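Assemble and predict.
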Amino acid sequence: MSYTVDTQGYYGPFGGAYIPEMLYHNIETLRRNYLDIMQEPAFQEQFRSLLKDYVGRPSPLYLAERLSAAYGCQIYLKREDLNHTGAHKINNTVGQILLAQRLGKTRIIAETGAGQHGVATATVCALMGIQCIVYMGEVDIKRQAPNVARMKMLGAEVRPATSGSKTLKDATNEAIRDWINNPEDTHYIIGSVVGPHPYPDMVARFQSVISEEVQWQLKEKTGRDHPDIIIACVGGGSNAAGIYYHYLDRPDVRLVAVEAAGLGIHSGESAATSVLGSAGIIHGSKTLLMQTEDGQIIEPYSISAGLDYPGIGPMHAHLIKSGRAEAISITDEEALKAAYHLTRIEGIIPALESAHAFAALDQLAYREGDVIVINLSGRGDKDLETYIKHLPDHE
Amino acid sequence: MNRLDRLFQEKKQEILNIYFTAGYPGLGDTVKIIRHLADAGVDLVEIGIPYSDPLADGPTIQASSEKALANGMTLDLLFQQVKEARQHTDIPFILMGYFNPVLQYGEDRFFRACVHAGVDGLIIPDMPLHEYEQVYREKLKHHGLKISFLITPQTPEDRIRKIDDLSNGFIYMVSSSSITGAKTAIQASQLEYFRRVQAMHLKHPRLIGFGISNYETFNTACHYAAGAIVGSAFIKQLGQGANVPMEQQIHQFVQHIKNPVEA
Ligand SMILES: Cc1ncc(COP(=O)(O)O)c(C=O)c1O
């Protein structure tokens, strides 16, 4: 079985492009051109050079010794938190801004949940001198205030999404509507492996630099190029897609996808899409999503703005449904506990999103001595307010 | 004969199609609204299936969908109401809705319910053309249902031809590159697009929608197509509440679109 996209834009039964005609021209232009552009030597050279000197890649692969000792295995952290702007999101925005320039676009729009993708987009727009508008749910604007300030300082306009749950789903709706209204000059930089084909594949390819590095870094450190287990949190699934990418066809590598259970899977306040979801269409893609019997999209909940999304990318829907990846759900409480644990034992404050991946260690079946790579997708600066609020519970 | 076929055979110009969201402003208003629209001389009605995430819609239709869902609208109830409305009028009914609710309801069950309720045609803006071609074209034909696809100023000529070949209903010309929402005037660049498509002499009749809000815009659209579709402007009117009875409100609205001088 293949886990990458097929020629029609599908991952098994998932994927495709379910879009109104108003988006057809732009999506079709992107579909026809993205692979050619990405394969141009000049593009690759510019992309690689920016990843190296601007983003600070390769990001380290760090053997977390005290954490390893606590779990009786070898745990390596892929330090995407050390990237410029503090998360994996910048890998994709560097790629897409170069692509947008080659498509002749002069205006950039993006959606953001935690604000990391918004900041990463605002950053590359500042770098290239291109106008930037970021849609962000009103709820998220409140809970990720530091990132809102960063985007503004970077010169981006942050537009609040006020419909629905006022979070990532609604910000994405607003960005899509903006693109419909501005079809000529605008490129939409989607921040995850979601949306109509070719976005899931394009974003996965830009993020695949993560697993490309893990291969040689792990070989240097352990003598073999693959771990036993890879763990990543899944909002839309871009950091997971990036760290799985070169291991998709290695069945001896277990892939673990960690979703946000919010207050508990069956509490009615959750974002555990693979458990609560069923096949349907969200943001132009056929995938698993949380919906009512009548096909209305359910508003999700998670303490983590970056995981507060009612769908997952079609690649992950396929990986999970076909049994290639295992899904684990982590509650707010468990994520907070894992964040404090990592901070106190390794001196690393993770993003709330990434903290979910660490909490999965407590639920995962593994053998003693297993080599586990966890994608530390971002740093926790943006979440300090939330962490401080919960500090007394963890003293 | 399908009521849409009959309409387009009998009437070649100034066809007025009015869109509203089922379940708005009140859950039980659907039948009343359709009856008043038919009585006021509207040629066909487009009944919107409310959806939580209407990607192609502006604030007015978004808000009406949200309200309709909060009122408790469901597909089953919608079909019941449409069926009841069908007892009162013989003008064509079109259901407009996003693909996801159709998939969850079950496509075949959905098509059967449409026929049973007296629906004549569908608009599903996010149904891919190739999926229609491969999966749904035969099914719709079997049920005697029409489907209309959208074209926009960005749709290339070869794709417009393909849509014309595959369609069995009217062609829905989106008037400009935009989401739905009332605008007050039609720009010169839009006229150029209207003329360009008019000159293609398509097999199917065209109706122009998005931004048609008053006599002027309706009248202009009618110069370049068989008629036009009014949505957001009508919903705004309904939302203004009832200083006057709904019947009078709807009659006045339709009269103002068709011919304000006589109104
Ligand atoms: C640090 C971090 N990790 C993970 C995510 C979730 O996104 P994805 O699943 O696309 O990696 C986000 C999203 O904002 C994030 O900021």
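The CA atoms of residues 192 and 238 of chain A lie 5 Å apart.
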